[in-house]
Amino acid sequence: MKRVKEKIEKMRYSIRTKIIGLILFATTGTICLLLLINNRFLEGYYLISKQTKLENAYFNMCELVQSGKEKDIVALELEVLCQKSNITYIILDANTGVLKPMYYNVNNAQTLQDLVMPYLFGIQNNAVTLKREENYSIFRNKDSRFSTTFLELYGVEPNMREYMLLRIPVESIRESVEISNRFVAYVGIVVSVLAILISTILAKRLIRPLLELVELSSKMSNLDFNAKYKRHDKDEIGILGQSMNELSEKLESTISELKSANNELQKDIEQKVQIDEMRKEFLSNVSHELKTPIALIQGYAEGLAEGINDDAESREFYCEVIMDEANKMNKMVKKLLTLNQLEFGQNQILMERFDLTALICGVIQSVEILCKQNGITIEFTEQKPIFVWGDEYQMEEVITNYISNAIHYAVNEKKIIVSLLKKEHTVRVSVFNTGIPIPEEELDKVWIKFYKVDKARTREYGGSGIGLSIVKAIMEAHHKEYGVRNFENGVEFWFEVDSDIGV
After folding, report:
1. Are 355 and 393 in contact (CB under 8 A)?
2. Residue 124: pLDDT band with limits 50, 70, 90
3. What is d(CA 405, CA 468) in angstroms, rounded to the nearest whole number?
4. pTM for this structure?
5. C-alpha distance from residue 16 to each of 6, 25, 198, 216, 453 (Å)
6. Average pLDDT in the 118-138 region?
């Protein structure tokens, strides 16, 4: 019921409804105005028009009577003249002193002749004078015999030799008004229906760009800057759409800068508290972790110097151990420097919007050869672009560490599953590998620098125990959640990243 009310309310205030209503109002208003004008003024206009016809017929008849043409020709031309205007007439000859019908177009001339007599003697009981001139007058007269009203013109020929009576029925005028009103009403109904259909179509075409702008503004309010106005209209709506596109780009840029500045501020505050402790911890960790490889290098180098084994194979083995340990020390120092920069806040976070799907696909592609060498399969089914906010380079480092860690520990089915879970404001990235679960008491310690759950296995593939510490530093710099959990058949590492901007 509530949805129905909301829908009715939206329709009530929609521009489409207003456009249709305005067009329909204009159409019906015009039709009503026409009907009002018809009823109010059409009959009067017709009366004036008929009076004019009577007058014109009178003047033409006077000319014909005075033309000197033969009587038959005059009679024929009079008949044609009056037939066009539905005029009945009689012309009486007064030259002999006795009124005699000279020309007429009725069967019984005496009827019209009788009507002339009252006018001749100035007796017009039912007649209303409409116009009076020197040689003729026009009256509105009701014929009691037929209950019909006529317009009648009584006049004399200018030379005073003939009397004339012309009449035209008024009822036909009233009937014409009624017919005209009915016709206008019928046409009005048809026009109103057409107006509704046409206005609906036009309104739909006009409103569609506005609806797109409404949807665009709604997405912008939810900080989705991917949506753009795609029309290229040159009218006011098109200009507004292009302006909103520019606004979207500027907002995205501004919010990105603001997000970066916000992260920098939080980082600066935390850095002051942690900096002294980190320095001590860093020096302690470096000295501790470098003891073993330095001792090995020193021992094997002394062995080479003293010539403990003179054969080439032994010397080559000693050199390989020294080179391997030096390489491990180099990698460890680089990672320690990276971790140190992260923990000390020297590595600036650049907040930007990037495609997480494409980033993961790139990392998977880079380790494809290593997976094939170890018989490991990686599954990642997401194909659609998923845009998130963060430092793209550092997020790549996190994903690379997770996948590298999974490759080294994947056993049994040797399968790695990378998945994305969309939440309200974040996206969770999970990297699962089949293998032996981490002991529950060790789960919270895997993020500690140089901590190794399986030291023998870590040593085998050259791990330093710093990778997950780098992940921890990056995620804490982003102020986002991360973690690890066990399953019966393996281990899952995860982290979250913003899918929208929260300043």
Report:
1. no
2. low
3. 9
4. 0.42
5. 16, 14, 12, 19, 68
6. 81
